[in-house]
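Protein: Nephrocystin 3-like N-terminal domain-containing protein
Species: Tuber aestivum
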Amino acid sequence: GCGKSVLSAAAIEDIKRLCFVEKGHTVAYFYFTFSDPKKQDLRNMLRSIIGQLLLASSDIGLPDEIIKLYRSSKASGMLPDIKDLQVALSHITGLSRKTFIILDALDEFPKATRGRLLSWIGELRADPDAGSLSLLMTSRPETDIAKSLELPTTFAIPLQSKFIDPDIQSYIESCLDRRPGFTKFTEVMKGEIKERLVSGSQG
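Structure follows.
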């Protein structure tokens, strides 16, 4: 791959640390993947995100919207409607001081139905009830995804770009200096390794 999930995993761990020290900050994430049909489903994603945010905010109890949604689903014997889940999620994010949602590999959501996912993302970002919300999304450069996310509030970082070479260099230097396996290398050898890896990375 092109490193999407590695980037997401690093971001998730960093944001988790932030949420641990900042009261009222919550984070939830979902990995889309070609290999698992259950992880190519909008309803499953919404249920997962909602569950994670509720768990992170367990000290405030279950919101009325969630209780109503549960009772309605139980009475009908059916899974909650996607629209109802979307409304519930917006309400939950609005309860936190700050919410982070990470969606990894949008391109691995089936293209035939991806429009619904992208529409929901647009609606969520524009929803005033969603509160202070930050979204991090990763994807290969698919045309429909890029077009859908072309908004003034979107900040895109291409992984295959010289733009992130300083970050790659910093990471390599950290590994060479701190990991036991590299301690026997001379500074000249470390310099050559760093130069080769950075110049050949293309982001």
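Remarks: Residues 76 and 170 are 55 Å apart (CA to CA).
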